[in-house]
From TrEMBL:
EC number assigned by the record: 2.6.1.1
Domain Aminotransferase class I/classII large: 29-394
Gene Ontology cellular-component annotations: cytosol
Homology family: Belongs to the class-I pyridoxal-phosphate-dependent aminotransferase family.
Other facts noted in the record for this chain: In eukaryotes there are cytoplasmic, mitochondrial and chloroplastic isozymes.
Name of the encoding gene: AAT2
Lineage: Eukaryota, Fungi, Dikarya, Basidiomycota, Agaricomycotina
Example of a GO MF term: L-aspartate:2-oxoglutarate aminotransferase activity
Protein name (Swiss-Prot/TrEMBL): Aspartate aminotransferase
Organism of derivation: Saitozyma podzolica
Quaternary organization: Homodimer.
Length: 402
């Protein structure tokens, strides 16, 4: 018998661990400031009405068979998904190779595996990940046998984007290096480059022959506008930078458990595209055979029906607006309490997350003593705030910084 007792335990996932502790907590004041899924003002997961309508339409089909998809996934869905993140022109003329994946994580994974196999620049290629970043990024790329490194993106003093640091790290990376970039609503800092800064970065990428791995899990959450939020992708496309796009529908459609995502690779010709698609299919076949069907059917229904699509677009804005509103309310409460710190960065940052600037010790106090659960990084998941708990959370934050 194999002696599995000798296996080391992997490092636990801090977010899942924190949420497990939250679930066990019986204190009535408890607040979850770490959810990874969008909550409404009642603290409940929001089933988007457009998605609910599409789901009802699909399951009422008398012939719905839960059949396998083809290995590439739901091809008409992939085309709609590509339109959303790359734009109509790129889809019509850009020779986009797409693969349906198991959520955004699957898109990152398959993108990483593909690049490990085929991104050959004669020598080792490093993958640069923003510091800080979504906690799974390093693991996913290391799992695909890459050495991962960090690039600067956050200035802890100003609690804003460290653009100078980011630019310097991009500028000094070796030709062919891969940079994982958050398209919008950076997780965990909420600090995105401006359009002009993306333009500048895309020019450096082109000049230096760098590869852009554009990860997009929150399109529409930063500004409330799906088109404005994809500016980074537009900028890199315009410059003709080599890239992959990893797209997730988990948050933006509330389809978390359906694991809906896509990987898109713009190619230089139809000839190249066919090869890329076939290689992506070959990887998929070996790993999971084919992506799950149900979420793709639902989202295709939403995206191909003009009325449902515009309803969905307005629902994304509702989510984004609520997050901005909660940022404003939290800051207003903190100002009312005359907290010594300046909290304006909370309203300047965008999307689901805010890097509050609370230290590990202060975050631990929030969690352990105030029952307001947040990770040691001080990342606040803004969606955890509601009209009824924002005042309490502000009081706790005021307390820990005094
Ligand atoms: N990338 C980033 C930056 C994320 O924040 C997330 C989700 N937390 C993902 C990828 C993965 O998304 P999914 O849940 O669709 O796998």
């Amino acid at each position: 018998r194999l002696d599995y007792e000798v296996l080391p335990l992997p490092k636990p996932d801090t977010m899942f661990e924190l949420l497990a502790r939250f679930d066990k907590d019986t204190d009535p004041r408890k607040v979850n400031l770490a959810p990874g899924a969008y909550r409404d003002d009642n603290g409940l997961i929001w089933l988007l009405p457009s998605v609910k309508a599409a789901t009802a339409a699909i399951i009422s089909l008398p012939t719905y068979e839960h059949q396998y998809l083809g290995i590439q996934g739901h091809v008409p869905f992939l085309r709609q998904a590509a339109r959303l993140i790359l734009g109509d022109v790129a889809v019509e003329t850009g020779h986009i190779a797409s693969l349906q994946t198991s959520g955004g994580t699957g898109a990152c994974h398959t993108g990483a595996v593909f690049l490990k196999k085929f991104h050959d620049v004669g020598g080792d290629v490093d993958v640069f990940i923003s510091n800080p970043s979504w906690e799974n990024h390093h693991a996913v790329f290391q799992h695909a046998d890459f050495v991962t490194r960090s690039y600067r993106c956050y200035n802890a003093k100003t609690r804003s984007l460290d653009f100078a640091g980011m630019k310097a790290d991009v500028d000094t990376a070796r030709r062919g290096s891969i940079f994982v970039l958050h398209v919008c609503a950076h997780n965990p800092t909420g600090c995105d480059p401006t359009d002009e800064q993306w333009d500048e970065l895309s020019r450096i990428f082109k000049r230096k022959g760098l590869y852009a791995f554009l990860d997009c899990a929150y399109q529409g959450f930063a500004t409330g506008d799906l088109v404005r939020d994809k500016y980074a992708v537009e900028a890199f496309l315009r410059e003709g930078v080599d890239m992959v796009v990893a797209q997730s529908f988990s948050k933006i459609a509330g389809l978390y458990g359906e694991r809906l995502g896509a990987l898109h690779i713009p190619c230089r010709s139809e000839f190249a595209k066919v090869r890329v698609v076939e290689q992506l299919k070959a990887i998929n076949r070996r790993e999971v055979s084919v992506a799950p069907r149900f979420g793709a059917d639902i989202m295709y229904h939403v995206l191909s029906d003009e009325a449902l699509k515009s309803q969905w677009i307005s629902e994304v804005k509702i989510m984004s607006d609520r997050l901005s509103d909660m940022r404003r309310r939290l800051v207003a409460e903190l100002q009312r309490l005359n907290t010594s710190c300046n909290w304006e960065h909370i309203t300047k940052q965008r999307g689901m997350f805010s890097y509050t600037g609370l230290t590990a010790e202060q975050s631990r106090y929030m969690t352990d003593e105030c029952h307001a659960y947040m990770p040691p990084s001080g990342r606040l998941s803004v969606t955890g705030l509601t009209t009824s708990n924002v005042e309490y959370v502000a009081r706790c934050m005021d307390h820990v910084v005094r």
